[in-house]
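Bug: C-alpha cell stream looks shifted between consecutive jobs. Job 1:
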Amino acid sequence: LNDEISSRIEILSRRLTSLEGIFEVENKRDSLKKLESESAKNEFWELPSEERTEVLKQVARLSESLSNWETLSQKQEDLLTAVELYREEEDADLLQEIQINCVHLEK
C-alpha cells in the first residue's frame, strides 16, 4: 500500500472520529432512546396530536441521521478491512476498490 493511500486513509479515520463529536452521535443515540421509550408508553397516545406528531418527527429525524452515520462508519470499517486484506494478498483489484472507497468517503 503506497504512502499516499495510507495517508488518505489516516486522514479519513481522523476526520470521521472528529465528525462523530461534531455531529453529537452519542447525544443523538441517547435522545432517540429516550423519545422511543416515551412514545412506547400508553400515556404518550393520550397527549395532544401536535405533541405526538412533534415527538414522532424527532424520532424520524434522529433515526435517519443515525442511519446515515452508521452507513458512513460501516464504509470506513469496510475500507480498513480491505486495507488489511490487501496487505496480506496485494491484489490489484482490491487496491482499486480501496482507492474508489477513499474517493467516496472523502466526499
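Job 2, same session, no restart:
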Amino acid sequence: FFQVNVCKAKRIVSSYGMLLCYPPPDIQMAFDYLKNFQGEIFIYVGEFQGTTANLKFEKLLCETFTLQKTVPLPQFGDTAYSLTIWQRAAEVHVATGKATSYYSFNI
C-alpha cells in the first residue's frame, strides 16, 4: 500500500466525467471531490458500506446521480468491490430534493 496525500477540493470543473478509485475510508476526501465535481458522469471503483470512502459520500452519490451500470471486480477475502458508472440525475424530486437512483441505499 502507498501513502495517500489528501488535498482539499475547491472546485472540480469537468465537462464530462471523473474516475474515483478506491478512496481511503472514513475521511472526507471522496465526499469533497464529489460535492465539488460539476461533470455529468462519475465512475467509482470501491466498496459500498465497506472499506472505501464513507457513508456521507455514498449518500451524496445516491442523492445526486443515477446508477447506470455495475461491473463486478475480483474480490479479496471478504470484500465487495465493484466499478459503478453514474450519471448526474436529470430528475430531482421536488419534495425531497433528491435524485431518483436505482441503487438500494440503506443507512
